[in-house]
Amino acid sequence: xxYDFDTVLNRRGTDSVKWDVKANxxxxxxxxxxxxxxxxxxxxxxxxxQNGVFGYEEPHENYFNAVADWYESQHNxxxxxxxxxLTTGVVPTISSVxxxxxxxxxxVVVQSPVYDIFYHSIENNGRHVLSxxxxxxxxxxxxxxxxxxxxxxxxxxxxxxxxxxxPANPVGKIWSRYELSKIAQLCKKHHxxxxxxxxxxxxxxxxxxxxxxxxxxxxxxxxxxxCVSPSKTFNVAALHAATAIVPNDNLRAQVxxxxxxxxxxxxxxxxxxxxxxxxxxxxxxxxxxxxxLLSNYQAVEQKLKDNPYVKLVPSEATYxxxxxxxxxxxxxKELEQYIRQETGLYLSSGDVYRGDGNYFLxxxxxxxxxxxxxxxxxxxxxLSKFAQSHK
Length: 391
Known about the structure:
This protein is of the alpha/beta class. The protein has helices spanning 39-51, 61-75, 90-101, 117-123, 147-155, 177-189, 231-234, 249-261, 271-281, 283-304, 332-343, 369-389, and strands at residues 26-27, 84-87, 107-110, 128-131, 135-137, 142-144, 159-165, 193-197, 224-228, 242-245, 311-312, 320-324, 345-346, 348-349, 360-364. The chain has two domains: 26-37 and 283-389, Alpha-Beta Complex (Aspartate Aminotransferase, domain 1), CATH 3.90.1150; 42-281, 3-Layer(aba) Sandwich (Aspartate Aminotransferase, domain 2). It is globular and about 60 Å long. The N and C termini lie far apart (53 Å).
């Protein structure tokens, strides 16, 4: 079956957060795609609506088995369905976990630059962000973990939780099994619970494979919580469907109590059928989507390869590209606002991800080719104009 990733969809006036912009603006910021989801999901939801009864619902074995089957077929490890809890979203689950397994004033360790909502979940709940910043090599344009610094941060007495992004948003890094094992070993050594947000795990480039943290050795998953969802993979964020995977019985009971106390365990009418359809029938659509994303990525590489003002950080996963603009500025917010004002292109400024984000912009390339070409032309023009105006 062929899928359409080239038709430009009119998303204005559809209550879209991404497309709530001015008429001349092109949004390439928030992390959803400008593609229709898999037709198998649409068919499942149409059947659900035709049923016409939208009462209270709860997941059963078919939901949890669909999640387990997906990870077995796509990522070579089958999590035990008994480890799973349905929840209405990864971010609400992260916030719930912060409240449930840490105390006010505790440290929550992250690796900046990282998804900015992590900071909200930590700080809005009265906890402290403690970052072991990723190390950026300007020569190779790559990031790595300073494990010595990470251990120092985890060893602090008030460090009780670490939130990991695997693969990493916004830097596009897939953490290897060795890296994940070492992180888990350090967390275990210092009695820190590890929460891994793996929402981008399906969206890998080339033959790169991400390692689900729950597939690590048995002795490393006792203090582990993994959050997964079809939302990024299939562009179904508004389904509000996710799964927390918690191998340890006692920890799972804590997470479950937090999710239920926070009223995050009751699915809407689309969550269960949409997730099952995605995981049971969406593999072929995902294969074609990944080919489209790779083509878009290569187009960005080609367009920017000789540009003096920007360097593309090589990405292994996600459709969110990390652009090094340190040749131009140390104020990414100013640059992002300038480009939007002058060209209408709406990117994400890297400062919100903290760490070294003041030197970067984030760009969403999950869009038809014509939109991508338009966005790249606006980007190049905006960078050049900014450079000329700041001589």
